[in-house]
């Protein structure tokens, strides 16, 4: 009966996560940014275009803490918010 569970010589080959997959924020390092973004969405009837600055700040927090891969903000669709200059960051 144990031979029925033997699948031969195939072995598991690990692979990196798909692009867009990243670790959860288990320690809440970016919780305040996420909460501001979610509040903005609720206040604006979930019209995400009105909350792009909050979304950008949240993604910057995740990248700074290695919770997602570093990507240029322009590549993530925030080029119009950077103007080639770093913005002042606020944590409040």
TrEMBL record:
Residues 1-12 have a biased composition (Polar residues). Pfam families: CHCH. It is found in: Cytoplasm. Its main location: cytoplasm. Residues 1-23 are annotated as: Disordered. Residues 30-64 form the CHCH domain. The keyword Disulfide bond applies. Keywords: Cytoplasm, Disulfide bond. GO terms for cellular component: mitochondrial intermembrane space. One of its GO terms (biological process) is mitochondrial respiratory chain complex IV assembly. SUPFAM superfamilies: Cysteine alpha-hairpin motif (SSF47072). Belongs to the COX19 family. This is Cytochrome c oxidase assembly protein COX19.
């Amino acid at each position: 009966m144990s031979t029925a569970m033997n699948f031969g010589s195939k072995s598991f080959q690990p692979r990196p996560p798909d692009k867009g997959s990243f670790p959860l924020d288990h320690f809440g390092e970016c919780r305040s940014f996420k909460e501001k973004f979610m509040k903005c969405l609720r206040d604006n009837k979930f019209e995400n275009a009105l909350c792009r600055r909050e979304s950008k700040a949240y993604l910057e927090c995740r990248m700074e803490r290695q919770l997602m891969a570093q990507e240029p903000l322009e590549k993530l669709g925030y080029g119009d918010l950077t103007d080639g200059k770093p913005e002042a960051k606020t944590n409040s």
